[in-house]
Amino acid sequence: MLTYTTEVPGEREETSLKWARLLSVHDSFMHELSQEVITIGSSEECLIVIKHEEVSNPHCLLMKDPDDVIWLYDCSKTGTRCSDGKWLQQDCVTLHTGDYFYLLWDEVDVSKRVGFCVLFVDDFKLLALSGESDKIKTTGLPLQPSSPKFMKPSTSNDDTDLENCLTCVICGDIYFECCSVQPCLHSFCTLCWLRCKRNECPMCRKSVSAYAKNHQLNNLVDVFLRKHPEKLKSESEQNDIKQEIARLSRLSNHTRRYNSRTRRNRERITFTGGDYGLLRSSSGIFPIVPTITTTTTSSVSTGPIIMPTSLPMSAGCVICSWLPPSYDRRGNSMTSISGITLSDHGPRIEECSAHCYCTCCNRPMPSRTTTIPQLHGINRTECEVCRRTFCSLVNPYGCSTCDGYCLSRVQDLTRYNSIPRNLLLNNRIETRILDDYLTSKGVTIPTFINHCLTYYMNTTTISSLCTLNGNSLICKHCGERLLSQLAYQYRLTICSNELPNDVINKPNCYYGRYCRYQSYNYNHARRFNHICERSI
């Protein structure tokens, strides 16, 4: 036997605006919803109390956000069943008018099900005018969501909705040369995807096996740009993007970027006993010749001889071609290092006893645990935050696939001449507000970054595993994360009277700086303030 009770908030119920009603699935009990957060459970503290031993305390809650979107949150241990048959476990989902959700579910006995149907107030009035509200009360089964009586006329601009669908979540602009990654089929600009250094989708974080051009989305973009020519990129900008796409596509690391690092380590050297195997390295391909008997001496070589098909142009390790700093490119010893005089005869095949791979260009390089005196115990290759390895400080020519800043010191972050447009919370609107403020005060970007590193470095924690200072090594990705947190601390110190009125009058987002909508929903980022903490 189920017992329903609803908390009566007194006189506030008469003045508050009712936005939805809950109808029970097996009786005529009705709940009118007027608060923004409705808790449902077996506790007396819940707004809707359900006396049942299998209902949790609380079981779930309904919330109406500032965009008039209804969210169902599951707080129970057993889960909440949605109308599409899916179970929520400590998760949330959006509800539409006519949707069902069940706190208890029984496949056989329908009477043991405990659930509700959500009806928005406007839709319920529509049913009352048509004379079907009594029918709903007696049967407890409202019309299905596909009924046209539940379909509300759209009040949003179709072009705005289409623009949101055709906006790249990485750059925030309309798709240009759109491509989709596999197997998740999320879409991005081709240039944005080629610039990504990680082998996972930026939206769902799934591993990516390949990417290909999305012709359907490109056709939609062409139709949209014909209606809105002001959003079309200039011809020179289009040519620059196409040239950059062609350059990145030709790089060898993008053709092999989807191979795992374990497989690369395993296939680095391959031998075939008794046959002509191959030694694969970044310097070339060396055939392995079987045992050869020399004619000048009576000794017999018992091991394979490595004979290069083309002589290397420089001395160094045959795996990574690394040379000590005091070595010239012909293999001659220039000076002695740490009391050790380097040999001046031929390539130094045993220079590097251990190797690692650069995260940026995927090329082998000496590991910091190698026996080379110049690298042993000195960190020149690892980011101190994410512990990934980079070759820009080891390779005398720098990393081949970036601008040379894939690994640098924290104090070198002042090299930026302009703020990245997604610097602050990955939100273009908040970043533009901060940029306009700095411009109005005459503060240059290096001065701003230097101020942040000086005053907010001790209060910012990018990782609990390390403590950063000005000389700490940090990669480009972690450096942008650090700058984002420093910029947020700086933005909090700006007085409200120094900002425009349209910025001050924005309502705070419920999720604050942890909101996920702000990064890809332009209208949401423009309407709400996200320089605040979470309020729910």
From TrEMBL:
FHA domain span: 38-87
Keyword Signal: no
EC number: 2.3.2.27
Pathway terms, separated by semicolons: Protein modification; protein ubiquitination
Protein name: RING-type E3 ubiquitin transferase
Enzyme class of the recorded protein, top EC level: transferase
Pfam families on file: FHA (PF00498), zf-CRD (PF17979)
Record Gene3D superfamilies: 2.60.200.20, 3.30.40.140, Zinc/RING finger domain, C3HC4 (zinc finger) (3.30.40.10)
Ranges where the RING-type domain occurs: 168-205
